Amino acid sequence: MNVRELQVALGERAYPIRIGAGLLDGDESLAVLAQGRQVAIVSNETVAALYLAPLRRSLREAASIEEILVPDGEAHKNQASLDIVLDRLLARRFDRRCLLVALGGGVIGDLTGFAAAIYQRGVDFVQVPTTLLAQVDSSVGGKTAINHPRGKNMIGAFHQPKLVLADVETLRSLPPRELSAGLAEMIKHGAIADVDYLVSLERDMEALLRCEVEPMREAIGRSCEIKAGVVAQDERESGRRALLNFGHTFGHAIESGSGYGRWLHGEAVGTGMLMAADLSRRLSMLDAASCARLSEAVFAARLPMRAPRWSAGRWLELMSVDKKAEQGTPRFVLLEALGRAVVRRVPDDALAETFAAFGEGWGGDGDGDAEGQRTVTASPRSKR
Amino acid sequence: MNVRELQVALGERAYPIRIGAGLLDGDESLAVLAQGRQVAIVSNETVAALYLAPLRRSLREAASIEEILVPDGEAHKNQASLDIVLDRLLARRFDRRCLLVALGGGVIGDLTGFAAAIYQRGVDFVQVPTTLLAQVDSSVGGKTAINHPRGKNMIGAFHQPKLVLADVETLRSLPPRELSAGLAEMIKHGAIADVDYLVSLERDMEALLRCEVEPMREAIGRSCEIKAGVVAQDERESGRRALLNFGHTFGHAIESGSGYGRWLHGEAVGTGMLMAADLSRRLSMLDAASCARLSEAVFAARLPMRAPRWSAGRWLELMSVDKKAEQGTPRFVLLEALGRAVVRRVPDDALAETFAAFGEGWGGDGDGDAEGQRTVTASPRSKR
Fold first, then answer.
1. Nearest CB to A93: which of B119, B148, B321?
2. Biggest alpha carbon–alpha carbon distance for chain B
3. pTM value > 0.90
4. E strands, B130-240, where?
């Protein structure tokens, strides 16, 4: 079996990410970790039906296995689901040496990771991400969280897993929208850190959309490398790690303003990246050709390319509770070039132009900025 | 002003503990930390009525001050109180650079510290402990938690404060029971790590019970030093830090079995230490004279000296959900001498004898062990 392994270098919290086909029941690393321990697998019904049986085979040497299923979807990444996990661990008298295993997408990973962070002040956990987004994003970096009625990911912790197992075969069962959502984060990694990777993604896009093992394993590996490299330099997100939020200030606004669950996170990030690139161009930081190139990659990944039609006031309101905001003034991750990102505060008028360009539809953004239209009209209509 | 300062040496998470009289509004360290930040003071009505005004004077250079009052008492160290804090922070749009200030005893400190640990994946906080127990125990070491219906401190995190301000003047308003409860933890520090300190506590006990500033500052300082030294060696409680749990396995059983709030934590620890010493003696690890000496210190601090009258089965049941337990088998911190503690698994029969000696009253423990009676009958009846 051809496995790509990389280390997330975080000193005593370092851990390996293993990427390949058939790892769920064909990799020894999880079996070794689970040996003799109380193990709880946290998943949802959809994923459990597909992958619980092979995963259990990897855990055959555990002292005990508890299956904890929580409701599916971002709307359930909340205190009620967290309570289901914590209550069960206590009811089964799980002690501090137990091991939690997150089997599912980002919701399961974030929820399980946060449960592991706070159960008896912290226990070990393993990520077995089964969506592309989770494999390249939420399983790398140790961010865990649940949502609060007042905002996404507002309650959480930094808690690193002991191991991440990314089985590319699980991606074959993904709905096309979710595959595209994962590709959005991979495009983001290229956009902020590695233009050659961005080019290779665009080149291999059809093979990636068909989930071909080789290109998928290599691309996931490169994305994890980029993210792991940034995280290793800045575990607690005080500086460089903020660059990973490229597209996310707009994206979170799109997600929360539309009601969680209507847009997938990666879809919102896809459009958010185009908005951030557009904003970079309006501030004379990025040229129009680079903007267009990013649009083309987003288009090739079959991602939506327009934002909801909201007033500037509505946008600002949605962004001011964003947790990256400081004292109410949102900052943005912008591009100086494809492959090079920076953080800047942005004047309201440039922001208003970007809102207008993406929210007003294809017909025009009302300010007569023809170059601005180029970004939007370079690509045909998205599926939204 | 005579301030004793010590550093808790935890690398990049190191922080100072400052101890003295009149620090609430007479110390610059908090003012400097709060400057220009969104600050939330978490407290309860009883404590706020006494100390909120002077504390606010120290925070006059904050960007804003939010007062969050939660219900008083251990019974309210729960999810509902946590929600009050988190909801308010979000409603007031507190960002990641905010500062939480815990003004109160261990309940407020643990709750506020945990809120700080998980709000937006972690924000800064300061401890301003107003009980003796909190000054010598819960404000040192970064343990934060809330209780769960199934067990005490089951949900929590390790999160170090940026500063601890222990104002000994706040101790004058403490009920006598709470002062004694704090002295129990100080006796514990002597018992596990420093017999000379134990002797000095016994010698100065009357002055300490009168809250005289000099001996109190020195004793609090020595207790914090001992605890900080242990914590610095073992921040995440994998080894040596377990010694700080001397008296706690029995103590937690007493607290939870009696219903939280009927025994103060320190009271339960006081009796728990005598039980652990008794168990050490039954296992031929500790001599009877040392047992008696510890009893005398506990007695001088006006702490209760008998446990509830429970069957061995009930005791074991209460102890097996203790979070220090591993796979259901409780381990105990025992004494090899006054000032020297170790962790051991203990056979059930010795344990049963200790339960009987402490639960059956002064009349005898039914096993005819006269030496065992010495420990119990050396001291007159406690206030319970």
1. B321
2. 68
3. no
4. 143-148, 151-158, 163-167
